[in-house]
Design goal:
The structure holds two protein chains of two kinds. By secondary structure, chain A is mostly helical. Chain A has two domains: about 240 residues, no CATH class; about 100 residues, abc type-2 transporter like domain (abc type-2 transporter like fold, 3-Layer(aba) Sandwich), CATH 3.40.1710.10. In chain A, about 65% of the residues lie in helices and about 5% in strands. Chain A has 14 helices and four strands. In chain A, strand 1, helix 3 and strand 2 form a beta-alpha-beta unit. The longest helix of chain A has about 30 residues. Chain B is globular and about 75 Å long. In chain B, the strands form three sheets. Chain B has a six-stranded mixed β-sheet with strand order 6-7-8-3-9-10, with helices on both faces. The longest helix of chain B has 16 residues. In chain B, about 40% of the residues are buried. Chain B has two domains: about 220 residues, Rossmann fold; about 80 residues, Alpha-Beta Plaits (2-Layer Sandwich). The chains are: A mainly alpha, B alpha/beta. Chains A and B meet through helix 1 and helix 8 of A and helix 2 and helix 3 of B.
Chain lengths: ~375, ~300
């Protein structure tokens, strides 16, 4: 116990003196929070829109107004010709363009079929789809409110409702998962470099001839990184709640216990890398090799359900896959241990396997 | 002071790495308080022997006891009773002198009560007191070694292993380092040191020459020098390379070492060889400035031994 404490204290001193590690611990989570919290936004609101209104009547103005009020379309410009509108879309200055022909109001009121054209930039399918659906909904609602068509009586009253994230905010989806991403990126890296550094600088030689036992060495080395990992996780959770207004619906104890399990997995990866690498640089390369597929295939960014079968299966051996589901489940849905067993067990098993394997390897390398 | 009890004893100690035998049936007997010098070229098996005796490498044959503990069965006990100073500085360069010492103080289980005293003793002995709050990286080579020695002696080990303790240290610091080592030996610590420097070996109580894993000679420096067969002739001449090639071939020459600007020849008969040397010098146009018979040094002993084993 005393040895473990001495090693842990020494490790903390190393961390405070190593500017590179310190920067990584502090800046990396902040950077990721900025990127995923503010930068990446797949919400397709506020699409830049150009209007070419040849009708210039009160009705055409009301139509434009209801587009704008929906929040999905920002009217950036009123074009003075159809050509100008096409050009704006061509150049990417606008994602959507609405052409209201002359006599739009007259035709509509007289019951003749009035023409209305919406042009949408389809290069990015996601916002294009939203633009298509919302514009259709807005126009049909507009027609009803103008009394152009009688309100329809439907035999089925269909009312879809969105649970957990009613506003479909990307941050709700991204930020909780970010805990997993940041831990996966930082913890194996700093733990592996800390161990490899002792090899690289020859410190391990002195440790070997001392009465320190290998398990004391490993434990003492990783305790500081467990503390740092938990601190990072708490910071992100706090930011999620107070900065991005994400409700924490689940139990914090459950959340942190399972974060600790995931943290152990990350440390296992770090220890493994340290047994393979002979320099700090090699260690970070090995870790990036693990991190990239983890981030892409875990479902953190891209939904796993749409992946090809083989890729989908690979996701099952990635610890982050389970943790992303767990943390989203706890934060957004308020799930507990009982609901998450099918995620917790594989995560736990992966953790035990990785940790046992890497510690055995570590022991062998020492001898 | 040297006592009669045995500190380190090895019997046919052997370590093989696959086909290669790094340490080959070594027999050593070192008493408490002794300064033991372990000499040999790089790769001769010095470091492997130290690693075996420190209990971090298991032998493939033979036995050894260190401080009364068997290296095969009691390596953990050996670890807490010895000190080790490695060839390359192996403490933490980003920690201060004090932080390094405190860390190993904890590891070697020095009691809270005794710690302050022991720390001050070690700082005073090593002269590190003024440096105690400096980061280890800021220390010069000599001071780093002092820190390593101070650190290795915190727990008052009876046996201290030093692997090339003065490698890469300037001559002045080297001398003062040895004074520190003598002081430790005076206090009763057994020193097991490997070295390249013959003048350091001269100061040891007992030395052993190792080559290709085998002990070629072992004994007191004076005895080893006395036992050397034949005489040593010192020749100051130019050019050195050509001269050494020419003289080496002469009949009756059993060893040759370069000493700065002169050559040492180990010869069977110092009178009979003189005309041969003069003739060789004429033929090869080598200019000899001086030629005299000198007492053997350890370097000569080493040169003859290496020559024989080659």
């Amino acid at each position: 116990m005393k040895n473990i404490k001495a090693i842990a204290i020494k490790e903390f001193i190393h961390i405070t003196r190593d500017r590179r590690t310190l920067m990584m611990i502090i800046l990396m989570p902040l950077m990721q929070l900025m990127i995923y919290g503010y930068g990446i936004n797949t919400d397709v609101k506020h699409m830049k829109t150009v209007i070419y209104d040849e009708d210039r009547t009160s009705m055409s103005r009301r139509l434009v107004q209801s587009l704008e009020q929906s929040g999905y379309f920002d009217i950036r410009r009123h074009a003075s010709s159809a050509g100008e509108l096409y050009e704006a879309i061509d150049r990417g200055k606008a994602k959507a363009g609405l052409l209201i022909p002359p006599d739009f109001m007259k035709d509509a009121l007289s019951g003749r079929s009035a023409n209305l054209q919406m042009l949408i930039d389809g290069t990015d399918s996601n916002p294009a789809n939203t633009a298509l659906n919302t514009s259709q909904a807005i126009v049909s609602h507009f027609m009803q409110s103008e009394g152009l068509v009688p309100p329809q009586m439907s035999p089925v009253d269909f009312r879809p409702r969105l649970w957990y994230n009613p506003d479909l905010k990307t941050t709700f989806f991204m930020i909780p998962g970010l805990v997993g991403l940041v831990l996966q990126l930082i913890i194996p890296m700093i733990a592996a470099t800390a161990i490899v550094r002792e090899k690289e600088r020859g410190n391990i030689e002195q440790i070997l001839v001392s009465p320190i036992k290998p398990h004391e060495f490993i434990l003492g080395k990783i305790i500081p990184y467990i503390c740092i990992g938990m601190l990072i996780a708490s910071t992100i959770i706090a930011c999620a709640h107070f900065l991005f207004g994400i409700p924490i619906r689940g139990n914090l104890f459950t959340l942190f216990t399972l974060t600790l399990v995931f943290l152990t997995v990350c440390l296992g990866i770090g220890i493994f890398a340290s047994t393979v690498a002979s320099s700090q640089q090699q260690a970070s390369q090995i870790i990036m090799f693990f991190a990239m597929p983890s981030i892409l295939l875990s479902g953190f960014i891209f939904p796993r359900e749409t992946m090809p079968a083989v890729i989908y299966q690979i996701g099952h051996i990635i610890p982050l896959t389970y943790f992303v589901k767990i943390i989203r489940g706890i934060v957004l849905k308020g799930l507990g241990f009982a609901d998450l067993w099918d995620q917790i067990i594989p995560l736990f098993v992966l953790g035990v396997v990785i940790l046992a394997f890497s510690i055995t390897r570590f022991h062998k390398r020492l001898e | 002071m040297i006592r009669n009890e045995i500190a380190i004893q090895t019997k046919d100690l052997t370590r093989k790495f696959g086909e290669y035998t790094a340490v080959n049936q070594i027999n050593l007997s070192i008493r408490y308080g002794e300064i033991f010098g372990f000499l040999g070229a790089n790769g001769a098996g010095k470091s492997t022997t130290i690693r075996l005796l420190c209990g971090i490498l298991a032998p493939t044959g033979g036995t050894a006891t260190v401080g009364g503990y068997d290296i095969n069965t009691d390596s953990e006990k050996i670890k807490s009773s010895i000190g080790y100073v490695s060839q390359k500085f192996s403490l933490y360069t980003d920690l201060t002198v004090l932080e390094n010492l405190e860390f190993y103080g904890h590891i070697y289980n020095i009691s809270e009560k005794g710690w302050k005293n022991r720390l001050n003793e070690v700082l005073a002995l090593s002269g590190l007191e003024p440096w105690k709050n400096h980061i280890a990286a800021e220390l010069s080579g000599g001071w780093k070694q002092r820190l390593a020695i101070a650190n290795a002696t915190l727990h008052k080990p009876k046996i201290l292993f030093l692997d090339e303790p003065t490698a890469g240290v300037d001559p002045v610091s080297r001398r003062s380092l040895w004074e520190l080592l003598y002081e430790l030996a005076n206090q009763g610590t057994t020193l097991f040191a490997t070295t390249h420097y013959m003048e350091e070996a001269e100061r040891c109580h007992q030395i052993a020459f190792i080559s290709q894993g085998k002990i070629l000679a072992i004994g007191k420096p004076a005895d080893l020098k006395a036992n050397i067969k034949g005489k040593i002739i010192e020749i100051e001449c130019q050019p050195l390379m050509k001269a050494s090639q020419a003289f080496q071939k002469l009949p009756g020459v059993t060893g040759l070492t370069a000493y700065g600007t002169s050559l040492h020849l180990n010869v069977d008969n110092d009178e009979a060889i003189r005309p041969l040397i003069a003739e060789a010098a004429r033929n090869e146009s080598i200019s000899i400035t001086s030629l005299k018979t000198v007492p053997a040094s350890l370097e000569d002993v080493f040169a003859t031994l290496s020559e024989k084993s080659a």
